[in-house]
């Protein structure tokens, strides 16, 4: 397992380089000039050219990309065009807010989606099953930004019980977390239902019922643990989607997080900030996927035993090969 984790961490390097390359190319082909944007429309061509030289924009694109990767490997993501502050400091000051929003939305999605999925699978074709289906259909069809605005209109403007902007208190957390988590909970509901329906038809579930165990024990001890494996995958993906979805949600709710920082940076053509933000989100998303893969072994011991069996088989084959080589040498 440790070798697997180290291998996945090493694979993180080409993934981040690829993400950086894609973002760099997309920013490179945009028609706007960041030096002109920063200098202002009234600045002279000489002033803009001098600013381009100071920002290193006159260097060839491959040179700038290689320099960026080299500096990123040393923890330097450049300096913001607008504030002149290091990009790393700007991102780290905003990232905890975005990370908290992603965690809260994933928690809401996991709890709501798993419970509704279990209920829907147990009471298949009932009113509860139809309710869960409609709930999932609305969640998948509803854009996050539209749901966020509707929540603001209803709970902030009409009822005046929740603040419409900010992220400083638990009351501020409710609407943004619900807006991001609702879509994810709809997807998890359908996945949990499908997985539970497949598991509860297995032979070992019939055996558990035949042994006289209660339905609650059969569902939550035997069936749910095995049904959670594909659901955990979806949860990990939705956590990454929560980080990306925060770009829109933080703008709607005026949250000072990484998502809003990236939107403002795109509008200001602040390319180092955009590249750094995407790189951090990609890194966290990859690490979360690795954590999900490791969690499989603890949810299903068969996965760990299969991995351990492959490792032991490789060792046996190596030992047998070494023995044969030694016999031939003798």
TrEMBL record:
Q: Which domain of life is it from?
A: Bacteria
Q: How does it sit in the membrane?
A: Multi-pass membrane protein
Q: Which Pfam families match?
A: BPD_transp_1, BPD_transp_1_N
Subcellular location(s) per record: Cell membrane
Domain (ABC transmembrane type-1) spans 95-296
* Keywords from the UniProt entry: Cell membrane, Membrane, Transmembrane, Transmembrane helix, Transport
UniProt keyword Hydrolase, yes or no: no
Q: Where are the transmembrane segments?
A: 9-27, 99-122, 134-157, 169-188, 227-253, 273-299
Protein family membership = Belongs to the binding-protein-dependent transport system permease family.
Q: What is this protein called?
A: ABC transporter permease
Organism, per UniProt?
Alitiscatomonas aceti
């Amino acid at each position: 397992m440790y070798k697997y984790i180290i291998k996945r961490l090493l694979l993180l390097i080409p993934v981040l380089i690829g993400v950086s390359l894609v973002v760099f190319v997309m920013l490179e082909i945009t028609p706007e000039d960041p030096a002109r944007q920063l200098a202002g429309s009234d600045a002279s061509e000489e002033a803009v050219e001098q600013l381009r030289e100071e920002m290193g924009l006159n260097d060839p694109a491959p040179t700038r990309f290689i320099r960026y990767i080299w500096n990123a490997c040393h923890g330097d993501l450049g300096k913001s065009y607008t504030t002149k502050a290091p990009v790393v400091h700007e991102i780290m000051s905003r990232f905890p807010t975005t990370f908290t929003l992603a965690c809260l939305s994933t928690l809401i999605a996991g709890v709501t989606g798993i419970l509704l999925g279990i209920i829907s699978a147990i009471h298949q074709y009932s009113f509860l099953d139809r309710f869960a289906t409609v709930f999932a259909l609305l969640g998948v069809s509803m854009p996050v930004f539209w749901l966020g605005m509707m929540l603001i209109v209803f709970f902030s403007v009409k009822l005046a019980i929740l603040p419409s902007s900010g992220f400083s208190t638990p009351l501020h957390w409710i609407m943004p977390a619900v807006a991001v988590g609702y879509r994810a909970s709809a997807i998890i509901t359908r996945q949990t239902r499908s997985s539970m329906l497949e598991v509860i038809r297995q032979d070992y579930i019939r055996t558990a019922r035949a042994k006289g165990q209660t339905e609650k024990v059969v569902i939550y001890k035997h069936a749910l643990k095995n049904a959670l494996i594909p659901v955990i995958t979806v949860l990990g993906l939705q956590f990454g989607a929560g980080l990306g979805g925060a770009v829109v949600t933080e703008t709607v709710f005026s949250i000072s997080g990484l998502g809003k920082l990236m939107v403002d940076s795109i509008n200001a053509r602040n390319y180092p900030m955009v590249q750094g933000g995407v790189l951090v989100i990609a890194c966290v998303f990859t690490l979360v996927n690795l954590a999900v893969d490791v969690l499989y072994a603890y949810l299903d011991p068969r996965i760990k035993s299969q991995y351990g069996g492959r490792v032991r088989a490789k060792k046996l084959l190596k030992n047998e090969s070494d023995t044969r080589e030694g016999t031939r040498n003798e």
